[in-house]
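hey so u asked for the seq, here:
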Amino acid sequence: MPLRKRKAQLKTRAGKAAVDGYGAMDARLPVSELAKQLVRKAFPDHWSFLLGEIALYSFVVLLLTGVYLTLFFDPSMTESVYTGSYAPLQGVRMTQAYTTTLAISFDVRGGLLIRQIHHWAALVFVAAISVHLLRIFFTGAFRKPREANWIVGVTLFVLALLEGFAGYSLPDDLLSGTGLRTAATIVGSIPVAGTYVEMFVFGGQFPGSDVITRLYAVHILLVPGLIVALITAHLMLVAYLKHTHWAGPGRTNKNAVGSPAFPHFTAKTTGFFLMVFGVLALLGGLAQINPVWNYGPYRADQVSGDAQPDWYVGFLEGALRLMPPWETDIAGHTVMWNVFIPTLVLPGVVFTLLFLYPFFERWVTGDRGEHHLCDRPRNRPTRTGLGVAAIVFYAVLLVAGGNDVVAFSFRVSIEVMTWILRIALVVAPLLAFALTKCLCLALQMRDHRRLTEGEETGQVTQSVNGDLSESHRALSPTARYRILMRDVPTPLELPTEGPVSRRRRVRAALSAWYYRDLVELPTTDEQRSRIAERTAPPEPVRGPED
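ran it, C-alpha cells below
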C-alpha cells in the first residue's frame, strides 16, 4: 500500500511539473499556436508525395550511419605500409584514409554493413530529390506561392551532388582518385585563376597533401549543416504554405484536403521511415557496392580501367567525353574550352535555368494568382515536353560517361560511339519534346472522347445485320471531376492599337507557343462557371489597416 501511494504521488508531481513546464514555455514562446497548427495540418494521401519523405528519411539514415563511420575514419593522407587483415594488400604503401577504410570494412564489427548502408542511402537520397523535383515540375507545384520552396529544393539538389562527390572521394582508392584527378582538371580549367585555385584546394600540385582532409570537413560539417538548415526551411515553408493536392470532389484551389498530422499521418510516416530504413539495410547487407579493396590505393601514375563515377555526376563525365578538343592559347596561357565548357559552363547554365524557370513561366503566362491544385502533365504539353527533353539530354550525357564500356559491349569504335552520342545529344531531346507533346495532346483527345462517349466496358454486341458495336458506360463523378478540373491559361494577345515593343512581341510569341495547343473539352456554360470558381485563386488575406 505505501509503495502504491508513493507511485501515485510521483505521478502527480510529474504531471504537475509537465504542466508547469509547458505553461512556462507557452508564456514565452508560441507553443500552443504552433502545436495546434501542426496537429491540424492536412497531409495529402497520394503516393507521389512520398518521394519527398524518401529523401528526408534517406538523409536521416545518412546522418546516423555517417556518425558511426566518423568514429573510425582518419582522413589523413600520410602514407604507411599496410599491415591489416586484408592479405592481398599487406605490405602496400597507402594513405591513412585508405587504411582506415579497409579497417572499417574488415576489422570493425558491422563496419562494412554500415558503410554500404551509408553509400546506398546516399544514392537513394540524390535519386529521391531528383524524382521529387521532377514531380514538382511536371505538376506545376513550383508556382506562386511556392517559388521560394522550389529554389530551396534545387539548392538542396546541388548540395546533395557536392556531398555525394565529397563522400565518394574520401576512401582515396584508385577509383575515387581517378575522380579527383578529373576534379583537379576541372578546377584548373578556370581561366586565369584555375591553377591557383587548384593549388589551394589540393594543398599543392595534384594529388597534393590536403584534399582528403578538406573534403572530409566539407563532407561531415559544412554541407550537412547547410542541408539540415535548408530541409528545416523547406519543411517550415511546406507547413506554412500547405501542400498542393490533386483535383477531386471537394478539392479546390482554396482548400487543403488530406489526413491530419496526428494521429493518422504520424503513424503512417513512422511506419514508412522504418520501411525505408529496412530497405536500405537490406541493400547494405545483400548488395555489394564500392568494394574499395578491389581497386587498391590511389597512385597518380595509374588509372582504373572502366572507371565510372556514381550516376549523379556521370553527366559531367559524359559532357567531357563528348566535347571536341578545343583549346586556345592567349598570352602564353592555355584556355581549355574542352574542359571548362562541359563541366562548368554547362552545369551553370542548366542550374540557372532551373532556378529561374518558375519566374519565366509566370512571365510567359502573365498569371499572378496562387495555385494549390496540381496540374495533370497532359494538360501542359509544352512544359511536359521540355521536362522530358531535359531528362533525355541528361540520359545521353550519362550514357556518354561510359562510352568506352558501351563501345566495347557493342563492338564499335569509341570514335563512332562518340559521334553517335554527339548527334543524339542534339537530336534526341528535340524528338523527345515533339513526341511527348503529341502524346499529351493524344491523352487530351482521349479525355474528350471519354467525356462524350463514356468509359469502354469491353463488351461487344452484334446486331441481326452483323454490325459490331462496343458498349460504354458513363464516367464516375470522380473521374469526370478530375478531367474537367483544369486551369490552363490562354495565350497572351497583343494590343490591336498603339505601338508594341519587341519585348512584348517576344512574350506573346512564347505564350502562344506554350498554350496554343489545347484540346477543348465538352463543357456547358454552367460547368465552365463551376470550374472557374473552383480553380480561382484564394482571396488575399487583408490586414487590419485594409
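The longest helix spans residues 414-453. The longest strand covers residues 455-462.
lmk if thats what u needed
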